[in-house]
């Protein structure tokens, strides 16, 4: 059973709540159902998202919509070259009445944190996110502070304007569960946006669907979704195949295998199942693996893309059948 002791969460309730959350966010974010679903998958898989897109496509609105849907605290950092690590984590402040230094939490302590244009921050400041994203706590002056659950970082970067930016190192890219692009809206969806925002910002009328405690229940329930040995080996084979592809200078890490498993569990639960299927893994492989692999210079000269490599890996690795899964279970 996927349910944890004392939890009221069930398979049907999980699917119903997940779909309701998606529909609620769609009141603000039009025509991007798949992106919304993946963002919620990341939230419930305790992962983080890197949104690479041009300005004005709704990245900030998406973060705010998620926060309001789960009735959680949101925070936003506009990353600039002069941003300091303490501007992210917080720092001790002198309390005049007592004469003691008291820690004042920074914006990293929000449940849903938007790091806008993260690649404009210096490497030193970028590193301030690493402990929070991986360990879900931050350490200041030797004291460790736990971050409030649920916690998700939505970081953005502009793929066009690269002047004065600091590209994220591979170690930090690997901390993101997904790398996504919202993209421009089509004609009818953009017309809907104009209609819903005709009298003011639609997000002001967005109501919460569940609270942070219910989100934690969903996280715990999804963590118990069954992953058969056959599917686990399939995940491992996909990741290992990226390490052997001639077009890649660097394949995916073990963290990518864990990310595939966690995200696949949530995706299965969102579809009303208590077990992960190979199709769950295949459907999110591109979002999980794309930013974790690096093309060789020769492959770039041939104008190959990471999307093509991921598709080739998916075609090359044998998909386990029900019979094969049963034989290895």
Proportion in helices: 40-55%
Backbone structural class: alpha/beta
Uncertain segments = none
- Percent of sequence in beta strands: 5-15%
- With strands numbered from the N-terminus, the spatial order across the biggest sheet is 2-5-8-1-9
Determine the N-to-C terminus distance. 16 Å
**Tally of strands:** 11
Q: Can you summarize the main beta sheet?
A: 5 strands, parallel
Order of helices and strands: HHEHEHEEEHHEEEHEHHHEHHEHHH
Mean pLDDT, rounded to whole units? 91
Q: Give the C-level CATH assignment of the largest domain.
A: Alpha Beta
For CATH, the homologous superfamily of the largest domain is named as: P-loop containing nucleotide triphosphate hydrolases
Taken together, the total number of domains comes to 2
CATH architecture descriptor of the largest domain = 3-Layer(aba) Sandwich
Number of DSSP helices?
Answer: 15
Outline type = globular
Radius of gyration: 21 Å
* CATH fold topology of the largest domain: Rossmann fold
């Amino acid at each position: 059973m996927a349910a944890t002791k004392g939890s009221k969460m069930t398979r049907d309730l999980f699917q119903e709540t997940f779909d309701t959350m998606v529909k609620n966010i769609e009141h603000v974010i039009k025509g991007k159902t798949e992106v919304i679903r993946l963002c919620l998958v990341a939230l419930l898989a305790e992962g983080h998202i890197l949104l690479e897109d041009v300005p004005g496509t709704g990245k900030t609105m998406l973060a705010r919509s998620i926060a309001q849907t789960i009735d959680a605290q949101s925070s936003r950092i506009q990353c600039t070259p002069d941003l300091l690590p303490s501007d992210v984590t917080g720092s001790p402040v002198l309390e005049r009445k007592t004469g003691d230094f008291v820690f004042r939490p920074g914006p990293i302590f929000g449940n849903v944190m938007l790091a806008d244009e993260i690649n404009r921050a210096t490497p030193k400041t970028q590193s301030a996110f690493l402990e929070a994203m991986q360990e879900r706590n931050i350490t200041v002056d030797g004291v460790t502070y736990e971050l409030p659950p649920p916690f998700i970082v939505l970081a953005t970067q502009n793929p066009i304007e690269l002047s004065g930016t600091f590209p994220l190192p591979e170690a930090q890219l690997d901390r993101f569960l997904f790398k996504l692009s919202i993209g421009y809206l089509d004609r009818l969806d953009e017309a809907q946006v104009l209609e819903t925002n005709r009298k003011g910002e639609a997000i002001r009328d967005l109501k919460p669907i569940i609270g942070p405690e219910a989100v934690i229940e969903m996280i715990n329930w999804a963590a118990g979704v069954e992953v058969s040995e056959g599917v686990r080996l399939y995940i491992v084979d996909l990741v290992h195949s990226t390490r052997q592809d001639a077009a890649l200078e660097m394949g995916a890490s073990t963290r990518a295998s864990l990310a595939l498993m966690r995200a696949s569990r949530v995706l299965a639960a969102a579809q009303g199942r208590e077990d992960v299927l190979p199709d769950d893994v295949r459907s999110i492989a591109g979002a999980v693996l794309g930013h974790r692999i690096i093309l060789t210079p020769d492959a770039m000269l041939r104008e190959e893309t990471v999307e093509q490599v991921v598709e080739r890996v998916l075609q090359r690795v044998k998909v386990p059948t029900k019979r094969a899964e049963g034989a290895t279970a």
